[in-house]
Amino acid sequence: MHEMSLAQDIVASVREHVGTERLRSVTKVRIEIGAASGVVSESLQFAFDAIIQNSSLSAATMESTIIPFVVHCYHCGKDSQNDGGYMLCSECDSSDVAIVSGAELILKQIELKEM
Amino acid sequence: MSIITIERKVLEKNDEVARKAREEFAKRRMLAINIVSSPGSGKTSILERMLEYFNDAVAVGVIEGDVQTDLDAQRIAKYDVPVVQVVTNGMCHLEAKFVYDSLSAFDGKDIRLLIIENVGNLVCPSNYDLGEEFKVVVLSTTEGDDKPLKYPAMFRNASVLLINKIDLLPYVNCNVDSMIKNALTVNPKLKIFQLSCTNVQGIAEWCGWLEKQLI
Predict the structure, then answer these.
(1) Chain B residues with CB-CB distance to A109 below 8 A
(2) Is residue B7 part of a domain?
(3) Contact (CB<8Å) A103/B153
(4) B80-109: pLDDT as tens digits
(5) How confident is the model over B156-171, as pLDDT tens digits?
(6) I need a surface site. Which of A35, B77, B119, B184 has the fewest CB within 10 A?
(7) CA nearest A38: which of B7, B11, B183, B185?
(8) What proportion of chain B, given as a percentage, has pLDDT over 90?
(9) What pLDDT score was predicted for residue B215?
(10) Does some domain include residue B5?
(11) Number of A:B CB contacts under 8 A?
């Protein structure tokens, strides 16, 4: 359940970027969750909601998008999706691959209503 | 309506501290490894066998991460090596700041190998860079051979797999060949050692390899 720590980091980042006086106008916090990041979207949502309750951010909702795990293959040169989160090219089975996306948790955007 | 675009890793702050820790390890010519596994796989027992193997030959420092108690640090202190116990008070993983803040305990001791024993958890610690050179994941035969496929992030982010408790193979329902095949499916670059802390099988091979990685 490291989602609670991660949600705290997200809330701290939002505070940092928006500033205390504009926190109440935050309507949405958009994040991207890598499919192979080990982060459970529902747990993160639960933790985020619990943290912002009765705070100046309480009007905000978290919107998360799952980013597929994609690796680039140095053998065949193709990018392919691997739903298991394995370091294998789905095109040619080579293990000579690097992660392109889907292993990270990104704070993408913050949406505010005009005051 | 206005939109602020950020595009920042949520763990960026942790990663920054991990970078500082990594610089400090390099400056001190210290190889740092981060041992991760589920609870009860034998991380502390392996650590004890490693300390017996290295004895006076390699100066080792230890950071012990646990949710509660300093029982592990007490076990390690018997080997007369500098040890820092980090109690996370409920947190399921170590973060880079715990490691960075512990480093002063090793000042002036010329430690060559820093072993960080993470909190027992096969999910959460995989996300947190502690500044280590590489992660070592421990999986014991009693846990079953399918775990790499079920917890891929930890095996993907590790460089070494220690298969522990191989002396129990005759008594448990675990196929070690399948375990290795599953681990290599997730991460074909894993270096794998098979160990027993009871009869010390494999300990010399693992420690000998590790000694060659020292800076």
Answers:
(1) 3-6
(2) no
(3) yes
(4) 999 999 999 888 999 999 999 999 999 999
(5) 999 999 999 999 999 9
(6) B77
(7) B11
(8) 91
(9) 82
(10) no
(11) 99
Give residue A79's region: left, alpha or beta (phi > 0; psi -120 to 50): beta
**B6/A87 Cβ within 8 A:** no
CATH of the domain at B113: 3.40.50.300
ipTM of the complex: 0.86
Total domain count, chain B:
1
Does residue B2 lie within any of the structural domains? Answer: no
Rounded Cα distance, A72 and A80, in Å: 7
Using a CB-CB cut-off of 8 Å, the residues of chain B touching A110 are: 3-4, 6
pLDDT of residue B61: 96
* pTM score of the predicted model: 0.92
Q: How far is A54 from chain B (nearest CA, A)?
A: 23
* Domains, chain A: 3-68+101-112 (3.30.2320.50)
Tokens of A29: 């916090």
Q: Is residue B28 part of a domain?
A: yes
**Domain that includes residue B106, residue range:** 12-212
pLDDT of residue B90: 84
CB-CB under 8 Å, B156 with A85: yes
The two beta strands, B134-140 and B113-117, are unpaired
The tens digit of pLDDT for each residue in B11-31 reads 999 999 999 999 999 999 999
